[in-house]
Structure formats: C-alpha cells, structure tokens
Write a structure and sequence with these properties.
Elements lengths: L2 E6 L3 H11 L5 E6 L8 H4 L6 H4 L2 H8 L4 E4 L10 H7 L2 E4 L5 E2 L15 H8 L16 E5 L3 H11 L12 H8 L5 E5 L11 H6 L6 E5 L15 H14 L8 E6 L2 E8 L3 E11 L5 E11 L2 E4 L3 E2 L8 E2 L4 E2 L5 E3 L2 E3 L2 H4 L7 H16 L8 H10 L7 H14 L12 H6 L7
Parallel strand pairs: 1-2, 1-4, 2-3, 4-18, 6-7, 6-13, 7-9, 8-9
Antiparallel strand pairs: 5-14, 10-11, 11-12, 15-16, 17-18
Helix pairs in contact: 1-4, 1-12
Bound molecules: NADP nicotinamide-adenine-dinucleotide phosphate.
The site of NADP nicotinamide-adenine-dinucleotide phosphate (NAP) has 24 residues, from helix 7 and strand 10.
Length: 435
C-alpha cells in the first residue's frame, strides 16, 4: 500500500524531507504544497541575491522533484481555503515545513515608526518576494542602523553597500537595485547587543565585508579582546576576531561608504516623530555566562532607517498547537500530533545553515516512516478533486519551469534571472489553468 505524505512548504526543509522520505522507496508518494507559485522558499526569497552559489542548492531539490513520486503543488495556501485537518483526511501524514517568515518584534518604544523595517520584510523586498514587493522603503536617507550580529544583518548591510558592478551577478529585484543604487546612504551602523566573541556571524560572511569596493568596514579596536586570549576559542570565533582586527586598522576616508560595527550596544528607543530620525542605544556588558546587562549609559545616532535583523517567527496555522513565545509549533522532536509533524525552522526556530535542514528532514522522514502505517488514504487524486471543487489553481512543477524560463529570458547582463515579483504576473504566463 502507498504511504501518502503532504509536506507544506517547499523550502529546503520541505525538499530534504521529501528526498529522505522517498529515498529507495517507491511506496511513498509526496505532495509538496506551497502558497507561492514558485518553489524553494528561503533559497529564492531569503538567501542574498549576490550569493548565487548558495542558491545553486536548488538543483538538488529539482532532482527530487523530477521523481514520479514527488510532486510540487504551488499557489495553494493551506489555511482557510484548505485546512491542515482536511489534508489529514487525505494523507497518512502531514509535515509542516513552513519556515519562519515573520520578524521577531523589536519591542522598544518607537519601533512602530515609519522607517523601521524588519529583515523578513526588507530581505523579501530586495529578493522580489510577492509579499514584500510593495514595501516601498524610503532609502533617501544618509544613515541606516542594522540591528543584530547574525548573517542576516551582514546580508542586509552588504546588499546596501555593494556597487552595481558588484551586484551584476545577482538576482536583486530590479526596483530594489534602482532604489539602492540611487540612495544617498553613506553610513551603515551595525549594532550587537553582546560582544564580538558572542556574535553569530560566520567568518566567510564577515570577511566579505572587508572586500567591498566602495564601503569600508570599521570597528573600534578597543571593543576587541586581546589576541593573546584567542587560543581557547573555537576556530570560527578566532577567524571572526581576525577579520574584526583588520577592520580596526582601516580608515573611514578609504571609501565612499562606512560600515560601522559596534558591539555592546542594545537599542532602547527609536527616535523621531512619525518617521525614524535616530536610534538610542544603551551600552552593555557581557558576563561570563554570555548574558548581556545594560549599564544605564545611553548614546544616540542619527539615522533615517532602522532594520532589525533579530530573528524570525513561524506563522501560526489555525488548529495547530503553537508556542507564541518562541514563535514556532509546539512539537516533540518534530511530532505535533499523531500524523502531524514539523521540520526545519518551523520545528526548531530560525537557526542553522541550509544544510542543517537536511538532518532535520532525515529525522522527520525517519519518524514518519517508523510511526505511520499506510491507511488507505486517497492522497493525490483526492487533493486534485478538492482543489477543482474549490476553484483553486495549482501550479505544477512544469508550470514553474515555464515561469523560471521566462525569468531567465528576461535577465540582462550577467544576472541569472529577472524575478517576477507578483503572483499575477507569474500566473499570466501559465494560462489556461493547469487542471
Ligand atoms: P541570528 O544568527 O540568530 O542573529 C540574530 C541577532 O539578533 C543576534 O546577534 C541576536 O543577539 C540579535 N538580537 C536578537 N534579539 C535582539 C534584540 N531584541 N535586540 C538586539 N539584538 C537582538 O539570526 P539571523 O541573522 O536572522 O540568521 C538566521 C539563521 O540563518 C542563522 O543561523 C544564520 O547563520 C543563517 N543565515 C546564514 C547565512 C549564510 O550562511 N550566508 C545568511 C543568512 C542567514 P544575541 O546573540 O545576543 O541573541
């Protein structure tokens, strides 16, 4: 008997789960359902547009999708029109691989001012994600504050700092390229509430900040620990400190733009009237356990845009147990309820590399295969019937390849594609409907 599995979400976690479920198994049939007409989730909408080699992992997911027992069902939102409970009637198991697409709130006074834009929205905007294409950020500002010391903060700063030449081999949304390239931004401030040793950057990403053509990365050497104490630190931390020590030798006058990395500073208030005019920060200390404490001493910087890059939350789904404090589904190692699982960021929160989702996918696939017996559920044909009855228009993998071909054909210069940023534009290419 066939085991029918529905995976909701076609990002890395979804595809690694499908790959693991179907490895050497013809008796498992998987539908990967996504609300967008485009597959690959974070790879398309989150990974930085100038990191094309990282995006290349989609070729692996494509291979999975070319198997007969794996199917992409795009443009179908699980929620009101089709519920998780209904999917549970059609499939033996349902796996939520919906990622974490919403910003953690900054939660300080003034955080609701115009000009405070979380990284989920800002990254989505420059990546042509249909949810954020209409964001219209005002980049007519001299200075930007990027909050957080993770790789997303680095991505955001780098994309704002790169020249058109440096962005040539990228799929940066065209409207974003125009806006960024005509912006008068001269100073980008990046704030970490803890110290350089606690920063979450990875050395490769931090090192890239030292190689920008028109932007100099700067740090106050007094914030860095003495190199004599580096030995007990993990290699990643030592490499990060090595980059930071180089930045400490550089001079603002070297380049048109300055990228200022400041540690031990946590935001306490966004300043201004209706829109952002500055940011107030409190100096901190970090104790031996790595916890940060405010000192009571504050300082202000002038900036017209604040981009908190402080982590993400998963979108709750009606009827599915959700931990509102942690922003993810309540689960026991991926198990939410009998037959209902989660994986990737929706399981463990927004941490780890793309590859971390592979072990997550393998783990949840093993659990599904061990726990769930095929129960004679109808799977694919029943979903097709239901979608037809409800007038829902699924986008197939073949449809997606047409969208992809149109994006590639529209690319100019060295760019790999020119992305559509609206679902309507994508669907226009596909008429008449697939079923
Ligand atoms: P992250 O690595 O968790 O960094 C979040 C940062 O925000 C931390 O520095 C955190 O400080 C800070 N923060 C959290 N709440 C804050 C608050 N209220 N006020 C001030 N600062 C606050 O998250 P991320 O940068 O969003 O990245 C998510 C995951 O994707 C990470 O695993 C990252 O490595 C990965 N990623 C990888 C790449 C790549 O490999 N190229 C690119 C992008 C993202 P504390 O440490 O003090 O909590």
């Amino acid at each position: 008997m066939t085991l029918h599995v529905a995976i909701i979400g076609s990002g890395p976690a979804g595809y690694y789960t499908a790959e693991a479920l179907t490895k050497d198994r013809d008796d498992v049939q998987v539908d990967i359902i996504d609300r967008l007409p485009t597959p690959y989730g974070l790879i398309r909408g989150g990974v930085a547009p100038d990191h094309q080699s990282i995006k290349g992992v989609y070729k692996r997911y494509e291979k999975t999708n070319l198997q007969d027992n794996v199917r992409f069902v795009g443009n179908i939102e699980i929620g009101d029109a089709l519920s998780v409970a209904e999917l549970g009637e059609l499939y033996d198991a349902v796996v939520l691989a919906t990622g974490a697409g919403h910003d953690r709130p900054l939660g300080i006074p003034g955080a609701d001012k115009k000009g405070v834009i979380g990284s989920a929205a800002f990254v989505g905007w420059y990546n042509a994600h249909p949810d954020f294409a209409g964001l219209d950020p005002d980049l007519d500002v001299a200075a930007v504050a990027v909050i957080g010391n993770g790789n997303v903060a680095i991505d955001v700063a780098r994309v704002l700092a790169k020249t058109p030449d440096e962005m040539a081999v990228s799929d940066l949304a065209r409207y974003a390229a125009e806006r960024i390239q005509s912006s008068p931004i001269r100073d980008i401030h990046m704030f970490g509430r803890r110290g350089p040793v606690q920063a979450n950057f990875t050395p490769k990403e931090l090192g890239e900040l030292g190689e920008l053509k028109e932007c100099v990365a700067l740090v106050d050497g007094a914030q860095l620990p003495d190199a004599a104490g580096d030995d007990p630190l993990p290699p990643v931390k030592r490499k990060n400190l090595g980059h930071l020590r180089q930045f400490a030798q550089r001079d603002r006058a070297e380049r048109k733009l300055g990228l200022h990395l400041t540690f031990y500073a946590r935001p306490v208030e966004v300043l201004g009237g209706a829109r952002v005019e500055g940011l107030r920060l409190e100096r901190t200390t970090v104790d031996e356990a790595g916890l940060c404490h405010g000192t009571g001493e504050t300082f202000d910087i002038a900036c017209g845009l604040v981009i908190p890059c402080i982590g993400y939350r998963t979108q709750a789904i009606p009827g599915v147990a959700f931990d509102n404090d942690r922003g993810r589904f309540i689960n026991d190692d991926g198990l939410i309820a009998p037959g209902l699982y989660c994986t990737g960021w929706a399981r463990r929160g927004p941490t780890g590399t793309i590859g971390t989702n592979r072990s997550d996918g393998i783990g949840v696939a093993e659990a599904v295969l061990a726990d769930v017996e095929p129960g004679g559920k109808p799977g694919r044909p029943a979903l097709d019937r239901l979608m037809k009855e409800r007038d829902l228009w699924p986008v197939t993998f073949r449809d997606w390849k047409k969208i992809e071909a149109a994006e590639q054909a529209a690319a100019r210069g060295a760019a790999p594609r020119r992305k559509f940023s609206s679902i309507d534009e994508m669907l226009k290419i596909l008429k008449p409907p697939a079923i």
